[in-house]
Amino acid sequence: MTTVLTRDDLLDWLLETDTPAVRAAALQRLSGRSAVDPDVVAARSAAMRSDPVAAILAAQHPEGWWVKPGAGYAPKYRGTVWQVVFLDQLGADPDDERVRRACDYLLRWSPTSSGGFGTSGEGREKAPPPSSVAHCLNGNLLRAFLGFGRLDDPRVQAAAEWAAAAITGDGDVRYYATATSGPHFGCGANDKRPCAWGAVKELLGLARIPADRRSPRVRRAVDEGVAFLLSRDPAVADYPMGFGNTRPSGSWFRLGFPSGYVTDVLQVLEVLTELGHGDDARLGPARTWLLGQRAPDGRWLNRYAYNGKTEVDIERQGQPSKWVTLRALSVLGPDVR
């Protein structure tokens, strides 16, 4: 008979010292420790010396980029964009010189003339075109840069304002068929229909702006994004679909870590919880669904691990996942006993 781990058992597992990045995150998210708590500082320091963080940073070019110079979107999951996004998700130290160098480099080459962060797979140090700005990328980078302490950087503020204007349609924003194709999260990758994946990523970025630092336009964009995500049951994820699709992508229901441009049901819960809407009754079915995803022993599995695609494998596909379990516990709270 399988023993089901309680919440306390799961916390003990997450706090094990052999995975210091998880330990540092769990101390803060689940135990309420501050970033300057000695145990958190020690765990983060250990994480910087351990894989996967150490392996990612070891592959960095001295100038701050990975694989090839430029805006760094390609190769997918190995280029500079992805390393900065994943390092933030892993809780890398913002004060580490290599992390600062990566942020400085990407902030030089990823902003576009529109203000948003754009994509480019070219190996040239050249700004990407404004037609390449999409909510998923902009939100991912916005969240990472804010996590690394760049709130006051004018380029980060410009990306936040671009996001808000593009969401609400309130401002001088040009839309392009190739990416952000219109207000209300319209995206060319979703047949110009509102894209929930992009909405989640953009809201995750805007959520990291302290409430008292959000402009009126950003506040309106956040409200619009919350309303959009709550307009459907996340457990069903039947958000607008383009190109003749009638069923949501299966990726919605494969919980994983790290997180690229794909979104899952849990990430909808995460962002709405972070924005203060975690107790909304409309999220009840999604929370029930999430509880139902526990393995027989009470842990959650990594069903979207990006194995073989990233600079270093972070967890094993289909195996018990400390990162996914941490994500789930962070939103479920006392629902897990």
* Distance between the ends: 19 Å
Q: List the domain count as a whole number.
A: 1
Structural class: mainly alpha
Unreliable spans: none
Mean pLDDT: 97
How large, in whole angstroms, is the Cα Rg? 19 Å
Total of helices:
13
Level of helix content? 40-55%
Instruction: Using the coordinates above, name the CATH class.
Output: Mainly Alpha
Summarize the helix and strand pattern as letters.
HHHHHHHHEEEHHHHH
CATH topology term = Glycosyltransferase
CATH architecture: Alpha/alpha barrel
Strand order across the largest sheet: 1-2-3
Shape: globular
Main pleated-sheet profile: 3 strands, antiparallel
**Beta fraction of the residues?**
under 5%
List how many beta strands DSSP finds. 3
What does this structure look like?
The chain has 337 residues and is an all-alpha fold. The protein has a single domain, classed as Glycosyltransferase (Alpha/alpha barrel). It has 13 helices and three strands. A three-stranded antiparallel β-sheet has the order 1-2-3. β1 (180-182) and β2 form a beta hairpin. α5 packs across α6. It is globular and about 60 Å long. The model has no long low-confidence stretch (mean pLDDT 97).
SSE order and pairing:
Blueprint: H1 7-14, H2 20-29, H3 38-48, H4 53-58, H5 80-89, H6 97-109, H7 135-147, H8 154-168, E1 180-182, E2 186-187, E3 193-194, H9 196-207, H10 216-230, H11 265-274, H12 284-292, H13 322-332
Antiparallel strand pairs: 1-2, 2-3
Helix pairs in contact: 1-13, 2-3, 2-13, 5-6, 5-7, 7-8, 7-9, 8-10, 9-10, 9-11, 11-13
